[in-house]
Structure formats: C-alpha cells, structure tokens
Sequence to fold (167 residues):
Amino acid sequence: TQRLPNASAMKAFFIYDEPFWRADGLNGQLISDVGPARMSNDTCLPGDDHGVILLFLEGEQARTYGRLPHDERRAALTAELVRHFGDKAARPEYYVDGEWSDRQWTRGCYNANCGPLVWTTFGQALAAPIGAIHWAGTDTATQWSAYMEGAVEAGERAARAVIAELT
Fold:
C-alpha cells in the first residue's frame, strides 16, 4: 500500500442564505474545462433554507490552488462561481475548503492510483486478510472504487468474512 499514492483533490463549500441559482432555473452544477474548479454540485441539506454549492478541484488544480493562501484561493473560487452563476455567487455567508492530501489518514483522494499492471497483478492482495486483520475501504472494493458505495461494499465484504470466521 505504500506504493499506491492517492491523487490530489480538494473540496470547497460555499454557503448562501438561499439557493439563489434555483430561482434562475439552474441546478447548481457546473462542468468546465477551464478555471480552478472543474465541477460543482448543489449540496443543500433537506429542510434547511441555506444554499450550498460544493466545488471540486482535482489534480493540478488542487495542487496549485491548495498552495495559495486561503483568501486568494477563496477569491479565485468565488470568481469561478460568479462566472457560472452570476453576481449573487459573490456573497456567500460562509466558506470552507480542504485539501485531502493534508489529512493524516487519507493523504489524498479519491482512491489510490496504481502504476501499470499493479491493480491487475496485485489487486487481490489489497483485501487479503493478514491473520485477524481484515481490510476494507474504497480501494479494496470490487465495484465503485473511489466512491462511498465502494467503501460500503468493501465493509460489508469484510464483515461477512469476519462473521464467517467466528461461526
């Protein structure tokens, strides 16, 4: 696993007093091949009146903008939202971001990046138990690797294996 580096990814949340984009007939999603963020989603919470847009920065954008001071990064991402959603996007109530590479237990996102032939040659070893230790995580998923669905599938697989050993 030491030879499976994670990619660079960053998330930035912009929280507004309301989901203003919906009144304009927009869904809060952007897909772009330019700018710091290449994708966004409307991530409003059900039952909450606030508007929340989540921006994704991946690869070189995450590495480049992750090194900027907080205020510069926020300004660049705000400008990106204004470009896509108009002037109302310039006034969030709250902003928070995070670079997954800074997190001790993930060291990157979304999953491990294998070199040539690593997954097909050694992939089975990632989930093989070592004594009483069973491995589960999105990188060991047989489907939906790098997604929550994959992590759940891997956890259920490992739980079934542990239960089978105990019975």
User: Anything to note?
Assistant: The chain has two domains: 9-102, 118-166. The helical segments are 20-23, 60-66, 70-85, 118-122, 148-166. The chain has a mean pLDDT of 88. Residues 141 and 153 are 6 Å apart (CA to CA).
